[in-house]
TrEMBL record, chains A, B:
This is Enoyl reductase (ER) domain-containing protein. It comes from Adineta steineri. Residues 27-342 form the Enoyl reductase (ER) domain. Keywords: Metal-binding, Oxidoreductase, Zinc. The keyword Protein transport does not apply. Belongs to the zinc-containing alcohol dehydrogenase family. One of its GO terms (molecular function) is oxidoreductase activity, acting on the CH-OH group of donors, NAD or NADP as acceptor. Its cofactor is Zn(2+).
Length: 364, 364
């Protein structure tokens, strides 16, 4: 295709050749995978992928830890790149734009949840990988690949002042923490707690600080104190230090808990002020245990949040553009071997704070 | 004292003779107990107790099931009676008024929690029994007694059209369910679920229906269906019937869970709409187990509620007066033996829906 604009052709069996890295099962290594992307429809944006972040979700899915994996799987939902062409009805993008794709590529767009701009919670939302298109048949393949074709509604603009590599994790880690910060109206009056200083936590600290909040990082490890402060935190609590935790009781308005490993939330809830909010953005496999007396005496709001809607994701990127916020990353070459090493290190929390794959160079 | 008004005399060691039923330990029976109430201060209301409801909390405390019991204990915090005299600065009560006292008799009234009219959550709130006055020394004795002296701020007016016996449980069971219904703005658009059809649940159904909500009762037992409907429910779910529970998934805006026995809340949360509210008003001793995926996918508000503030309690009583709502009760003679029998039956949930002790006749 030479034209920069295509016409609608959603039913064509002929696709566009694409290549990526896929796994065929939970126990086999990544390999080069040749596949077809759909022919772009009128509302589609074709994006040449430059970078893709490695989210912990990728690891859970590749290893089938959530028991819902479909293979072959091309992971990756922290995607940035450059628009290569757009369909005839696409309004807000043109070739050359910096674009991002996050965790979803479609939703029903008709239900009350979609109409509230929370497409991520739509029962029919189509995830970027390990999922299907709305037809419930066509598999979706993610961002460890050279090219992606996505409906305009699910594509975001990346502000030009943000580097595409360090911006990539904003599409998942960024929006995941931004959404509850906005939902609970964080501002300069907010005493904000961020639990865990990993991929999600580190960007949560930056975003919370940029919104003016007094940010306290709560971590199991004293060793993260200096980094927390450099990222913008004003206070640091070691969650295993009962004395510190007791002194800070009833001090926080909002806690964003980014930890995905099973952990005791009771000491965290104790940090909340009366009617404070605890919001989980991680997904521990063990249920959270919440004491009834805590609910009665503190009447907190205990809730969770899953990424964010498309409108909110764009708002987050614009906010990051304005405040010049990106993620702290380790950019790496993208090969089956480097991905494996990055997975191993991510599992050990040995990364500050996100690996980002150099996709463009891998598939040149 | 013959005057209907007294002057301030908070330091007098001389009290007013009172009598009630007390237990001396978790394993000894109720006995007649002679004690002194304080001399009324300028802001005190002296109430001749006519009726006192038996709340499940009384049973937990008498048997020291919450490991915080102090003896001798005169239980009872669902108190109605008639004002006998008032202190010189009392503005809103006079002799002859119908008055009610609930679960608390004082609080600091200075903290931000008190200033929000949520005195029940004040760290220094003084409970009606098994607690102390603000001095942290003087024990409080509850409503299984002939007389109580309470600061005006903690006394409510009972609308004259409500019978004092059936109104008594409004002071605890009524406000406990009313408060979250108001907090979450229940009206004719609300799909409301009430879990458990006991003392709390039955009045919750009446209040919710009077606010216009579509009320669904969720119970372990099909046998309660007819009663639920008679009380004002429009639908009924047997929580053990997976099929029924599945059909009703994502249908409720607000769930008030009145069950104090440990139970699985996951099937209840499944009934909530996206962003629905689950509010515990019972206090199971085992923590609630909340799955992280439920938090992320449904982003509910999980919270709890403890009775209500004084302003809200008066509002509830006025609402009940306007809608002619009282509790369904079994009124019984008040003797150590009848109390024991009532406790045994309450533990077996063999009461529709609240025992109320005839205190006036017991201490004539």
């Amino acid at each position: 295709m030479t034209s920069k604009q295509t016409t609608a052709n959603t039913t064509s069996p002929i696709g566009i050749a694409a290549k990526g890295y896929a796994v065929d099962s939970a126990s086999t290594p990544f390999k080069l995978f040749n596949f077809e992307r759909r022919m772009p429809a009128a509302d589609d944006v074709v994006i040449r992928i430059h970078y893709c972040g490695i989210c912990h979700t990728d690891i859970h899915q590749v290893y089938n830890e959530w028991h819902m994996s479909k293979y072959p799987m091309v992971p990756g939902h922290e995607i940035t790149g450059v628009v290569e062409q757009v369909g005839s009805s696409v309004k807000h993008f043109r070739a050359g734009d910096h674009a991002g794709v996050g965790c979803m590529v479609d939703s029903c767009r008709k239900c009350h949840i979609c109409k509230k701009d929370t497409e991520q919670n739509c029962a029919d939302s189509c995830l970027t990988y390990n999922s299907t298109e709305l037809d419930k048949v066509t598999p979706t393949y993610g961002g460890y690949s050279n090219l992606i074709i996505v409906k305009e509604h699910f594509v975001c603009k990346i502000p030009k002042n943000l580097p595409l590599d360090a911006a990539a994790p904003l599409l998942c880690a960024g929006i995941t923490t931004y959404s509850p910060l906005r939902r609970y109206k964080v501002d300069k009056h907010t005493q904000l707690g961020i639990v865990g200083l990993g991929g999600l936590g580190h960007i949560g600290v930056k975003l919370g600080a940029a919104m003016g909040a007094h940010v306290t990082v709560i971590s199991t490890s004293e060793s993260k104190r200096d980094d927390a402060m450099k990222l913008g935190a004003k206070a640091f609590l070691v969650s295993k230090d009962d004395e510190q935790m007791k002194t800070a009781a009833n001090s926080l308005d909002l806690i964003i808990d980014t930890v995905s490993a099973p952990h005791d939330v009771a000491p965290l809830l104790n940090l909340l002020k009366f009617e404070g909010v605890y919001c989980a953005v991680g997904a521990p496999t063990k249920p959270l245990e919440i004491g009834a007396f805590t609910l009665l005496m503190k009447r907190p709001t205990i809730t969770g949040s899953l990424i964010g809607g498309m409108k909110e994701t764009q708002e987050m990127l614009d906010f990051c553009g304005k405040h010049n916020i990106t993620c702290d990353i380790e950019k790496i070459e993208a090969t089956p071997e480097t991905i494996k090493t990055a997975y191993d290190r991510t599992v050990k929390a040995d990364v500050k704070y996100r690996f980002v794959l150099d996709i463009l160079n891998a598939f040149k």
